[in-house]
Design goal:
The complex is a heterodimer.
Chain A lengths: L1 H32 L4 H7 L5 H27 L1 E7 L10 E11 L2 E11 L10 E5 L7 H8 L15 H28 L3 H14 L2 E3 L11 H6 L9 E6 L5 E6 L4 E6 L4 E8 L7 H7 L1 E2 L3 H6 L1
Antiparallel strand pairs in A: 1-2, 2-3, 3-4, 6-7, 7-8, 8-9, 9-10
Chain B lengths: L19 E2 L4 H9 L2 H12 L32 H13 L4 H12 L4 E2 H14 L6 E8 L6 H5 L13 H12 L4 E9 L4 E9 L6 H5 L10 E7 L4 E7 L8 H18 L6 E10 L2 H7 L34 H15 L19 H14 L13 E6 L11 H10 L19 H9 L7 E6 L3 H11 L19 E5 L2 E2 L10
Parallel strand pairs in B: 9-11
Antiparallel strand pairs in B: 1-2, 3-7, 3-8, 4-5, 5-6, 6-7, 9-10, 11-12
Helix pairs in contact in B: 1-5, 2-3, 2-4, 2-5, 7-9, 12-15
Classes of the chains: A alpha+beta, B alpha+beta.
Chain lengths: 305, 510
């Protein structure tokens, strides 16, 4: 048994080593290919087969294109490109203008979103219409499009003005602020010490429950009130048991172990505008409500202070 | 069953979680028969946990009456909740049949009845175990345009909201207010952990009473489905609805009618003053919850289906800091080379052109077809991706292609044969695809003959099937219209000029 295990671990070690080396090799290759003046040098040197030279030139060119593309994408944040719709029945011969929005947080590019436009109207050639996109529904794409990219009716004389630049700018703002809010909630969880615990709890709960029942309050039986009180937990110091946010991170719910719960409303820029904190018996905690209002980042500090 | 001492009068209450159905009740039997051993044990654990005990009281020793003592019992009642929890933990640890657990629950620990809460959680458990067991229709909560606030609706400000806000408590009380005068119902609203969604189960009790006794008495026809499911994917304007029918159970008109009542109440429960909602159809029906979450979910896939899936799964755009152009594993290399080419040439090939013509080793034809399929379908429509649509139906609104040697005589004949599509006597219910009056008018204004042709694709995964046909060369992948790749993201629609008709000004997928 021991030998097979040892062999298995050795094999997996080797695989890991191979993949690191391959990654390293790829890295070195792209560094090499990005050398300045590589193209002319390739042309000057004599080679055995002309085909090899052509291949090399192709690879170098590919790398150069990628470098330029990445630099633009990384620096501009919003970039445009052209693609072709493969659908033979696509409008405007399948010409598609793509807009790519990069979201970077904490020195990393976390996500790329695309909006693809076509030109459905033969008379008003400049009019763009959103054809496909990868924007999640919690981002107000339709209102933004209504505002900046109004669609001209087919029979209209003049084209209504569209502003793609402003559309891209405001869409990017929405996307970035959403990601920043997501990030902020993650940080709040870490601050409240929920990160590891929640993972554990998740495992433990995954076996036993399907989810959180939201309408336990519907119960009309009045005699249950007493039990409710007895089973209330009073053990240990009060701590935050859960921080939950909706998908758009416009509402965050904080739950304490003594049954207190706070719901705060977050504006898109991360400002907490309104808050409601209730004790388990339903009474409001106005002191905490006042503390909660402010930036999202310091919420836990303010609430626990 | 506990004797019902209170008088039964019609009232305006919901059915509480703790009301019990006798274990012999048809719904109970059916639901429990379907569940697996593991699910039953996990449910029992759930019911015995502290917060649920009020709704799922088992039969304990203390509940036993003195005169029952001499009765023969297959299962001795437990002393306490803790003891029961231990019992189920032991059962979970060892192997055994499913029947053992089912009998223990129904004849032992919960012999006095299964509460509404238990039944609801059991049904939801089954739904999560078998996500393809029900047929779902996706709807969208759309704001009813308001003349006064039209300008306000358009504005995107720092604190504007474009999605209906889902607040469980408010929603439930609104829904109950809408429904209780019409019927009694039990509601269970659950936020699911494993999937990004919230499930509402409504058990419809078609009776003026909300007492336990009236629940047990089956007044409606025994075979009609009693419960309705609604799912809200988190952070999206969609609602999926379904009637929970057991296998082979027919959804009667009653069931449909009751579902419609609940369905109509839902947008009302969401509405607030100055923000009224209605349910709009999204032309999407499927059995697969996973497909629903992809096509009508909270993520990025809603408006990038079919070949456009390369835009959502990062195969079109690498990370902006990823400079490595060499060394990719094979599957990846295809897409990447396409992306690179498009960067180099002015007009990119995008999703759809054969990506590589180099290294043709074996069967160039098959390889080419595979690449065409790759281009048209991108990373979607893989046979085992769990996102199969079982039925896709389209109506072709394009004029019938002219036959080269048609004589004038034949033309006359065809116009006689086509006395207007709506007057045709189709059997059964009117279909969603029946042409509306405006559409008929529009078509009659055209010169050409436009017959009412409908194409239905059926199978376990329609678009994976079409992809395979393209790869086999049965369908010409390059001439195939885009809706056959599933990129329109509908399961029912009308095709005009080779494209699925869409509403004007409406952006797909939001």
């Amino acid at each position: 048994m021991a030998t097979t295990e040892a062999l298995d671990s050795e094999i997996s070690d080797l695989y890991a080593r191979i993949s690191t080396l391959q990654a390293h090799r790829a890295n070195l290759a792209s560094i090499l290919l990005s050398q300045p003046h590589l193209q002319p040098r390739l042309e000057q040197r004599p080679v055995l087969h002309e085909r090899n030279r052509r291949n090399a030139a192709k690879i170098v060119e590919k790398q150069a294109k990628r470098n330029i593309e990445n630099v633009y994408r990384a620096c501009a944040g919003v970039t445009a490109y052209k693609v072709k719709d493969p659908d033979p029945y696509a409008v405007d011969n399948g010409n598609i203008l793509g807009v790519r929005i990069e979201v970077s947080i904490g020195g990393k590019f976390v996500e790329t979103y695309h909006v693809l436009f076509n030109r459905p109207n033969a008379q008003h050639k400049n009019m763009l219409k959103i054809h496909k996109h990868t924007i999640p529904p919690c981002i107000p794409l339709q209102p933004l499009a209504n505002k900046w990219l109004p669609i001209t009716r087919k029979d209209a004389e003049t084209t209504t003005e569209q502003n793609l630049l402003k559309f891209g700018r405001s869409l990017r703002k929405e996307l970035v602020s959403w990601h920043l809010r997501l990030e902020a909630v993650e940080k709040l969880r870490v601050e409240a010490g929920l990160e590891n615990k929640s993972a554990e709890r998740e495992e433990e709960r995954a076996e036993s429950t399907i989810g959180k029942v939201l309408n336990t309050f519907v119960s009309d039986d009045e005699d249950e009130e007493d039990e409710e009180r007895t089973r209330r937990r009073r053990d240990g110091p009060v701590r935050i048991t859960d921080i939950e946010a909706d998908t758009a991170v416009r509402e965050i719910t904080v739950t304490w172990s003594d049954g207190r719960a706070a719901v705060v409303k977050v504006a898109k820029d991360g400002q907490i505008e309104k808050a409601a904190v209730r004790f388990e018996d339903g009474a409001r905690d106005s002191a905490l409500v006042r503390k909660a209002v402010g930036r999202i980042e310091g919420l836990i500090q303010r609430l626990t202070a | 069953m506990a004797p019902n001492t209170t008088t039964t009068v019609p009232d305006y209450k919901n059915i509480p979680h703790s009301h019990r159905l006798p274990v012999t009740h048809r719904e109970v039997q059916r639901t429990f028969n379907k569940l697996s051993r593991q699910s039953l044990i996990s449910l029992a654990h759930q019911w015995l946990s502290k917060k649920n005990r009020d709704f799922c009281r088992p039969y304990l020793l203390s509940d036993r009456d003195a005169d029952d003592e001499d009765e023969e019992e297959a299962y001795t009642p437990a002393q306490s909740f803790e003891e029961l929890q231990e019992v189920y933990k032991e059962l979970a640890a060892r192997k055994g049949g499913k029947r053992e657990i089912q009998d223990r629950i129904l004849e032992g620990d919960w012999r006095t009845g299964i509460s509404m809460y238990q039944l609801a959680t059991a049904e939801i458990q089954y739904l999560l175990d078998h996500p393809n067991s029900l047929r779902w229709t996706a709807k969208r909560l759309a704001k009813i345009p308001n003349a006064k606030s039209a300008v306000l609706d358009m504005e995107v400000t720092n604190d504007s909201e474009h999605l209906p806000r889902f607040q469980a408590q408010t929603f439930m009380s609104n829904l109950a207010r809408e429904l209780t005068p019409l019927m009694k119902a039990h509601y269970l609203l659950t936020k699911i952990k494993t999937l990004p969604m919230t499930i509402l189960r409504v058990y419809i009790h078609d009776s003026p009473y909300s007492s336990e006794a009236s629940l047990a008495a089956t007044t409606a026809s025994p075979d009609s489905a009693r419960s309705v499911f609604f799912i809200w994917p988190n952070g999206s304007p969609f609602v999926y609805s379904s009637i929970a029918n057991h296998l082979g159970q027919i959804i009667g008109d009653d069931g449909k009618h009751l579902r419609d009542i609940v369905q109509q109440a839902i947008p009302k429960a969401f509405s607030r003053p100055s923000a009224r909602y209605q349910l709009a159809s999204t032309n999407f029906t499927t059995k697969s919850l996973e497909a629903l979450l992809t096509y009508r979910g909270p993520g990025r896939g809603n408006a990038a289906a079919g070949g456009w899936s390369i835009f959502q799964d990062h195969s079109f755009s690498q990370n902006a800091l990823d400079f490595i152009t060499t060394q990719r594993e094979r599957g990846d290399a295809h897409e990447k080379s396409g992306a690179d080419k498009e960067a180099s040439t002015g007009a990119k090939p995008g999703p759809g052109r054969p990506k590589r013509t180099l290294d043709d080793t074996e069967s160039p034809e098959a390889k080419r077809r595979r690449e065409v399929a790759e281009g048209r379908f991108g990373s979607s429509a893989k046979p085992n991706d769990g996102q199969g649509l079982e039925r896709v139906e389209v109506r072709i609104d394009d004029p019938f292609p002219a036959i080269p040697n048609t004589s004038a005589q034949q033309e006359v004949d065809t116009s006689d044969l086509n006395p207007g599509p709506t007057s045709r006597n189709r059997k059964g219910r009117p279909s969603v695809l029946d042409r509306s009056l405006e559409e008929v008018e529009e078509l009659q204004n055209e010169e050409a003959w436009v017959p009412d042709v409908r194409v239905v694709f059926r199978g376990s995964h329609v678009f994976a099937g079409i992809r395979q046909l393209v790869e086999q060369g049965v369908i010409d992948g390059e001439k195939m219209p885009g809706w056959m790749t599933g990129e329109a993201g509908v399961t029912i629609g009308a095709v005009k000029e080779g494209r699925i008709r869409t509403k004007k000004d409406h952006i797909p997928g939001v």
